[in-house]
Design brief:
By secondary structure, the chain is mainly alpha-helical. It contains seven helices and two strands. 11% of the residues are buried.
Amino acid sequence: MLTTDNYECTWDLYKSIPSLSSKDKTVFNETVKFNEAHKSNAMARLVDRRHAKVPVSLMGFSMQDRMELLKISNSHDDMLGASYITDWLSPAFFETEFWYMWATTFAFQPWHSAVEFKRYLHRFMLEFSRIETLAGVKRTIYNQYDSLARSLQTWLEEHGVCFVMNCRVTDLDYKSEGMMQSV
């Protein structure tokens, strides 16, 4: 999932990378134009076993869910440590409409890192208001590999970068404060 609100560095990079399909456009311009023509507007983010649309505007939160979300959201990374999301949220939370939408949008599982979950809550807070329609999601014209990775690789190769595939790195040298170091 890409959003223009949260991926400033990515979009800044792709403002200078030519599109593979049109060298007179950047990947950023191509993506913006594509999204203007094809706006995200999911009419049903969740459906039940009867294939009926599940109302999601209230997100299914109980007061306990809200309090637990605030607690994890306001916790310092050191306090969260190596804990899991399940260490901070009750089992009922994982049955909320919010969890189903959040987990499917960002590929979270209950056993994932509580720190990472908190970071996503902070970074994508704006998505709370539009997660039921995915209005904030920006899609590339092709899949992300073909639109982003291949465009960048092509540009780098055109600027002299040599990619070596199917090899194993067993040693790495890097410069630190003017001296060559071996790792």
